[in-house]
Amino acid sequence: MSKLIVAISGASGSIYGIKLLEALRQLKVETILVMSRTAQEILEYETPFRRDDVAKLATECYSDDALFAPIASGSYFNVIRGMVVAPCSMKTLSSIANGYSETLIARAADVALKEGARLVLVPRETPLTAVHLKNMLALAQLGVVIMPPVPSFYDKPGSVDDIVQQTVGRVLDHFGLALEGTKRWKGEEGPRAF
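Structure (tokenized):
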């Protein structure tokens, strides 16, 4: 089975990347993890996890400055299902949108684009400036899935973990992977008038 690249960049919300790795392990999907240095600092601040804990969730791991890693080359992408950046900082999003491949995360995303692999970005920023929106539009026009972690409430979440898991499930949908427990809108008919 093909591998999925999971990148965790330096934005708040590293729990999305962690829960994504846990879900992929549960689904028996091989993963390649890349974490930026800032992501490592943020995850230790926001969660009980440490870098080594997160690394153990992945099949392979690379530092963000490992530009000689296999995923930096299109010749390796025949075994890659796609790539997710969760969370995706605006710096990383801008680098990807503008082809500035100074880091492994940006380079792997650039390779995913040129090789036609699925690329999903989970940007964590609000409010969004015109610059952020311009970069997102440029990427969306290239086929990148821009998926801010906006909670759904039709599933009546009972905890922050429920909200995170629902987002993770929706991200995995874009790779044809079904995470058990992901709730779907049932289209139940509601009132037609007040």
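DSSP finds seven helices and six strands in the chain. The longest strand covers residues 80-88.
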